[in-house]
Structure prediction request, 534 residues.
Amino acid sequence: MWQELKGLADEAERVDIIDLFKTQGRAEAFSLRFDGMLFDYSKTRLTEITRAALVDLVAARDVAGRRDAMFRGDPINETEGRAVLHTALRNLSGGAIRVAGEDVMPEINATRARMQAFCEDVRTGRFQGAGGAITDIVNIGIGGSHLGPEMTVMALRPYHDGPRCHFVANVDGADISDCLSGLDPTRTLVIVASKTFTTIETMTNAATARAWMARAVADPGAQFAAVSSAVDKTADFGIPPEQVFGFGDYVGGRYSVWGPIGLSLMMAIGAERFTEFLAGAESMDRHFQTAAPLENMPVMLALVGVWHHQVCGHGTRAVLPYDQRLARLPTYLQQLEMESNGKGVTMQGAPLEGPSGPVVWGEPGTNGQHAFYQLIHQGTAVIPCEFMVAAKGHEPDLAHHHQLLVANCLAQSVALMRGRSMDEARALMVEKGLKGAALERQAAHRVFPGNRPSTTLIYDQLTPRRLGQIIALYEHRVFVEGVVLGINSFDQWGVELGKQLAVTLEPILKGERDGARKDASTRQLVAFARGVMT
Ligand SMILES: O=P(O)(O)OC[C@H]1O[C@H](O)[C@H](O)[C@@H](O)[C@@H]1O
Prediction:
């Protein structure tokens, strides 16, 4: 299968994307629509033949069977012996979902109802801090307990009508220090977000926040809430049980924004908008479950990804949202995609046949254009670009800004595809009055190789529903890519070793243990740090 695809990739080397548009209907045939979204992958080298070969992978790898097993609650996360049911958190209209025979929906719905009541109390001022109604919320969490809430709260800024939300993740004291300075502890609610409630960064920051609050508030625990799948561990913190919101271990950290980890988002936009966000994701779930591969947005997004990375060998992919409020989306997707599919072995523990998932990176446009796009256009590596943009902004008075934004987004994919030939560059230099060797030299710098692939996801407006759909789209894309590669997308053993070594290094840095058994480089770094610290 891979061999055949590699052969097709070699043939595709000779394909000029722009020539593919000589076929009538290319744009429509290599696009698909769902709800208010259009995903256009026609500016890639995919042809009918290569696409058909990729679609064959979907059946060959039994993507539908794996998908159904996930939605059904089978323990598909085999290395942790868990089901994978973030979809249950947004199962607003579906029926029972059983994990080991037990329906998880009553508990999920009851917890969401408690979250809603708590949010309502905070947002209306019925819930009071020591100094009055809550004005500010601080979410303390890291990884999946941070990136989802932070990204979505920023994305949905036009819908905020609740307290201001702030986020602390890094164990670097600078993070919490900068966050808390300027906040009034008597009117702040701290949410400690941690699936395991053991993560050292989060526990350290939570203790610091508690001490900060205790200096001004008699009962600091009362102004704390906790979200975790280990609710038993939250009691030690003195948080009232009615302010603790649990979720099952069948929800992975990077897939958890749909449940209690999304509490800060619900605080910011209210329960109704939060439900729209869930409904958007749920609609993408149904689409993913029912649409045929060619009509299935997550499947096609995944196959384009497999084509570019595993088949054509492009090492990274850029996610380029033309939306300032999606500035944190690339970082969010880094965790979602790289923690899920950055694995070197198959589900059976055998080495992967080809590369694991790609490096994912990006920044919002148009900012990136003035920074790293130089390399995207003229560097030697081909970087498939995933553009995304809303046709309409949220600032009606600034519609001209938005038109410029959209124009820039669309222009980039054209520039990547068309490029500029040496002849065109020469013509430009002739216009400038250059001649001979100077003309040739200057023209060479102005050549763009072109024929560089990109996809564009365009949608009407970044509403809560649309954001829910976009995140779910990428979640299922990651799932399909993982199934095609034969890996477990739902564990993350690769983060453990560094954590364990940090535990051994801390006492050495403090001078409580000697580091004689560490390597010479590490001993040298420790010595330098200790020389400054002490
Ligand atoms: O939510 P927590 O249990 O505190 O975990 C926070 C994060 O830390 C871990 O190291 C994992 O790599 C992430 O997947 C997780 O989201």
About this structure: Residues 142-145, 194-196, 199, 202, 253-254, 339, 492, 495 surround 6-O-phosphono-alpha-D-glucopyranose (CB under 6 Å).
